[in-house]
Specification:
The complex is a heterodimer of chains A (about 675) and B (about 325). Chain A has about 675 residues and is of the alpha+beta class. Chain A is built from 25 helices and 19 strands. Chain A has 2 domains: about 190 residues, Alpha-Beta Complex (Penicillin-binding protein 2a (Domain 2)), CATH 3.90.1310; about 400 residues, DD-peptidase/beta-lactamase superfamily (Beta-lactamase, 3-Layer(aba) Sandwich). Classes of the chains: A alpha+beta (about 675), B mainly alpha (about 325).
Amino acid sequence: MEPRLSSNSLKETFDRRSFVLGAVQGGVGLLLAARMGYIAVAENEKYEMEAESNRVNLSLIPPRRGWILDRNGSPLASNRSDFRVDIIPERLHDRDATIDLLAKVLAFDDLERKDLAERIESASSYQVVPVASGLDFEKYAALTVRLPELPGVLPQQSYARYYPTGSSVGHLIGYVGAPSREEYELEPQPLLLTPGFKMGKNGIEKQFEQELRGVPGARRVEVTASGRRVRDLETREDIPGDPIRLTIDGPLQDYAARRIGLESGSVVVIDCLTGDLMCMASMPSFDPNSFSDGIGRVEYSMLSENDRVPLRNKVLQGLYPPGSTVKPMVAMAFLEAGLSPDASVACNGGLRVGNRVFHCWNRRGHGSVDMAKGIYQSCDVYFYHFAQQLGMNVISDMARRCGLGQEFPLPVASQFYGTVPDPEWKLKKYGREWQAFDTVNATIGQGYMLFNPLQLAVYAARIATGRTVMPRLILDGKTPKFGSMNFHGDHVQVIQNAMSDVINGPGTAGRARLPIDDVLMAGKTGTAQVVSLSLSNGKTGPWKYRDHGLFISFAPFNNPRYACAVVIEHGGGSGSAYPIARDVMAFLFDPAKALDALHGFEKQWGGTAQQRLEQSYAAYAAAAGVDLPPAPAPIKLAEKVDAEARAAIAEPETPVTDALVPREDPVGSANGNLT
Amino acid sequence: MSPYATSHLLRFAVTLSMALVMSLFPMNLAKLAALPIYAAVVLLLMLVETLGAIGGGSQRWLNLGFMVLQPSEFMKPAIVLVLAWFYHGLPVGLIGTWRAIVPAAALVGLPMLLVLLQPDLGTALAIAFGGAVVMFMAGLPGKWFAGGALAALVAIPLAYFFGLQDYQRRRVTTFLDPESDPLGAGYHITQSKIAIGSGGLFGKGFGNGSQSSLDYLPEPHTDFVFATMAEEWGLVGGLFVLLIFGLVLRWGLTVARDAQDRFSRLLAGGMVATIFFYAAVNLMMVMGMAPVVGIPLPFMSHGGSSMLTNMICVGTLMMVDRWNKRPGKNY
C-alpha cells in the first residue's frame, strides 16, 4: 500500500484537476453550442441562400436573335437550328487532352486545332469558347457519347445566325461572335457568359445589338455538386429580339455585289424620293456566316493579304478623288452664280491663264463648248475657264450643299467623310494660299477632293431631284419629306438634260444606255488618276497605279426615282464603272434581263462571288502552311481595318504644287466614250 | 438502410457487445495486459510502416481480409491504459522527479513518431492529448505543463514551416481563411458551414438535406456527419447531439472521480479525455473552428475503426464503473 498522506494528496490533486478538465470540457461544449447557434440562427439566411444557390443551377437560354430584313421583308440575317459545341475553360481538367479528343471526334485539321487552342488560350477562364457549330448529327451524337471524358465541354442544340446571301451583305450587316473579355467587362451580364450566345461584332449586327438581342430564357435545374441534373424546376421561354427592317433591297444588293465581279469596288443605290439606301455593296467581301465561331487563321490570312482589302467597307471607308463626276455639281454652282447655260468658251485642248497652259483631256480640243457640252463631253477647258471667273468658293459651297464631304446620320460604325477643299481650308491645313491650279484641279475632281461612294450617290440624288435628299438605312414606316435645294428656275432640268446626253446623246458614255426601251438613264463618268502621267498611263501596268473608275447616275431621267454611284478601284477608268451602273439600274426595272447578263459574266469569272470566295479559300488553305498568324479579335480587327483604311486614303501629305495634266484618252477621243 | 445504415448498426451492435464483455474483466487482468497490449500495438504500427515502405508509399491500414485494421486507432486507448499502469506502479514520492516524466514521455513519443511517419497528424495529436491528460491527472507538477505549453507555442510555428506536409499546411491556411480557396481546400469547411447554417432552427427534415444528398457536402456520412445531421434536424438536433456527448462525458468523469484507486482513476479519466478529444475536434472542424483533420465523430461517423476505439473507451469506463461498485472483489 502507498503511504496514506501522499496518496491522499494525489487523490486531491486528481479531484482538482479532473474538475478543471470537466470545466474545460463543459466550456468547449458551450462554445460549440454557441457557435452552432450563431451559424444556424444568426447567419441562417445567408447560408440558406448559399445552399439554394448550390442546389439550383440557373442556366440561361440564349435568346433567338432578331432577324434583319430587307425592305420587302425577306431576311438578310436569320437564325437556323444548329448543333454546336462550346468549352468553358475553367471546367476543363486536362486542356490538351480535351483538345486532342475534340479534334479527333470532330475531325479537325491541324490549323483548326491550333485556332481552337489559341481561342482557349486567349479567353479568360469563365468565358465561353466556341469550338464548332453547324455540326451534322453523327458528329454531335459521337461527341455526346464521349462527354464523360470531356468535362467542361458543352454540346447543345441552339440557333445559329444565318446570312442567306453570304458575302454580298458582309460589310453592311456585319457578323456575330461570342462576346470577348473586353465586351464582358464593358457589360458584365451573365448572358454574355452563356454558351451559344452571340453578339453583333460589326455593321448592323453591332449597331442594333440591343434591339436584336432579345431577352434570354432561363432554366432552373436542381443539380448535384458534379453538375448532374436531378430534375428541372421551371423553365422560362426566351423572348426573341426585335427584327430590324432595312431600306436595303436584298436581291438588288446581292445583284450589285455579284455584278462587281472580279473588280474591287462599291455600288450605292438610293431612292430619290425617300432617301432609302437600297444597295450598299462593297466587294470583294468576306462570308459573315463563317465568322460567327471566330475567324479562322486561314481565312484571316487570306483576307488580310488580299490587296483588294476584302475586310474594308468601301462604301463608307473608301475615299476617292471624284474625277469628272463633280462636273454636274460645278456646272450647277455656275448656274446658281448667275452663269447662263448658253455661255460658251472655245476649247483648243488647253486654256492659258497668265503664262501657263492648263490642258483639256482632249488635246485636239472640243471647239465651242457651252454648259451642256461641257458636261456631256466632259470638257475640262470649259470648267477651267468659268471657274477662274467665278472662283472656288461657289464650287465648294455647292459641293457641301450637295452632300459631298458630309457625314450622314446613319447607324454605321465608321463613316469617312472626305474633303471639300477651299482657300480657307488650304490655309489652315497647309498654311499656303489657294492657287489658280488648285481651282483647276478641283473643277475636274482631282487635287484635294476626296469623297466616299455614299456621298456621290446622295449628290446624284440631290442634283437629280433638286431636293435635300438624306439617306436612311432603317425602314420605320415614315415617309420622309425633303425640302427643296432652292435651285433657281429650270437649273435642275438643264443639268438633267446634260447628264442624259452623256448617255443618250453625243456624250462620253453611250454604252451605258439602259437595255430597257422606255427608261432613260442620266449620268456622268469620272476617271480619277492616282499617280502622275510619268508613272503610268492609268490603264495598264501595275494594278495599284491604274485610274479609279467612277460613275454617277439616276433614272428615269425625266422623273428621277433611283440614283446610283459606282466606284471601281483601279479599274483603269470610268469604262470599268458605268457598265456596272447600267446593269444594276437595269435590274431595278427588269430583273430577269439583268440577271441574264450577269449569268453570262459569271460563267467567265468562274462562278458567283460566294463560289469564288469558297474556291479561293480552298486553294489558299491547301497552299498555306501551319504557321499562319492567328486572327485578331473582332474588335481589334475592326480597329485595324479602320486604321488601314485611313492610312490608304490618298490625301496629299504636302500641298499639291501644280495642276494635274488630264490623260488623253485614245478610246474616248475616238468614239466619245470615256474621260 | 443500405449501404450505410445496416453496416453502421451492425458495427454498433458488435462493438457494444464487445464493450459489455470488456466491462466484466477484472482489474488485475487490465493491469497485467497493459504493457503487452501497448507493445503489440506498437509492433502493429511498425508493421504498417514496413509494409508501407515495401509497397512504396504511406499506408495506415492492415487488411485482415474480414476487416481493415488501423493500428493507430488502437493506440489511443492503449496509451491511456499503459500510462495509467505506469503511474500506478510509480512510487508516490517520485511524482515530482524525472522518473515520473521520462519513461512516460518515451511511451507517448514512440507511437507518436510512428503515426507521424504515416503521416497522420490528427491521430498523433490525439495520442499526445490522451497521454498528456493522464499525466496531468497523475499529479505531475503544474509548472511542467506550463513549460510544455510554452514549448508548444514556440514549436508550433517551427512545426508549421518545417514539419508539416504541403497538404497539411494548406489545410491550416484555409482553415484560417476558407474563402481564400472556396473551390479547393476551403471547400470542405465552406460547404459544411452552409449545411449547418441552412438547417436553421428545426432543419430541413430527415432526408431533405440538399447539401448532403446532392453531394455538395464532402464526406457527408463520415467526418462531416454532424453537418448532415444539423442540416436535416437543425439547431435542435445538433444541440441534442451535444447534450448526449455531454452526458456521456459527465458520466465518464463521475466514474473516474468515484474510482477507488489510482489505476482506475487515471484509466477512466484518460478514456473520457480520448472520447472528448474526438468529439471536440470533429465538431470544431465541422463548424469551421479547426483545420480539416481526419477525425471522425464518435459513434456517429460511419467507419469501423473509430467505432471500435470509442467502444473500447466506453467499455473501459463501464469496467471501471463495475470495479467501483464492487470494491474489494478485485484485489
